[in-house]
Amino acid sequence: MTPRIDPTAEIEPGVEIGSGTSIWGHVHARGPARIGSDCIVGEKTYIAYGVEIGDRVKINAFVYLCNGVVVEDGVMIGAGVIFTNDRYPRATTPDLQALRDSGPGADTEPTWVRGGATVGAGAVIGPGVEIGRFAMVGMGSAVTRSVPPFHLVIGSPAVGVACVCRCGHPMLRFRAGTVPDAGDVDCKACGSRYKVHAGEVVELGAA
User: Fold this and answer.
1) Contact 24, 10 (CB under 8 A)
2) What is the DSSP code string of 14-41?
């Protein structure tokens, strides 16, 4: 199915857009970049060159995706999320006499959002982090460290407070940053089964 692209969107040459994807008003996508199939890209979102977006990804309005961001299949990114890629940003050279190039440099660090993860509205994602499979980032959080798969993090800086199921519901809550060895855990919402040990969540299959 042909992608649906709003006439106000600015899609530069070299941007690959998969079938069934909808690009809403005033989106700016710079090439080269890839947006997969059956995605939704909300209005006024910015996608930098070098960004890779998988299939069935939902990106709400006003999202900023900078160079070096990789978004895998099935990810949800809430409105107003900002990604960053430079840990030591400066506008000029140290003598203030020359404007720095805005492209990637020695301090540019890539960021990954793994399959099935959710990033809540208004979150800020620091450079060089990985948000694990089916992890969740709470709204307004500032992520400065990588988030393990199936973990929920909240706050600024974000810390883990729960393990979450594929369906999104918390299955194990804990004191901030301290994951208990809970053994086998069932999701009360959908019945899926997991094992939580040494801070890791392993899927055991449906109940």
Assistant:
1) no
2) TEEE-TT-EE-TT-EEPSSEEE-TT-EE
CA distance 115 to 132: 8
Q: Which candidate, 124, 132, 189, places its Cα nearest to that of 158?
A: 124
Superfamily of domain 4-175: Hexapeptide repeat proteins (2.160.10.10)
Domain definitions of the chain by residue range: 4-175
Burial class from Cβ neighbours inside 10 Å (0-12, 13-18, 19+) for residue 122 reads: middle
Give the tens place of pLDDT for each residue, 95-114: 999 998 888 888 889 999 99
- Identify the CA nearest to 167 among candidates 192, 143, 149: 192
What is the per-residue pLDDT across 39-64, written as a single tens digit (0 to 9) for each? 999 999 999 999 999 999 999 999 99
Phi-psi region at 87: left, alpha or beta (left = phi > 0; alpha = psi -120 to 50): alpha
Question: For residue 86, what is the DSSP state?
Answer: B
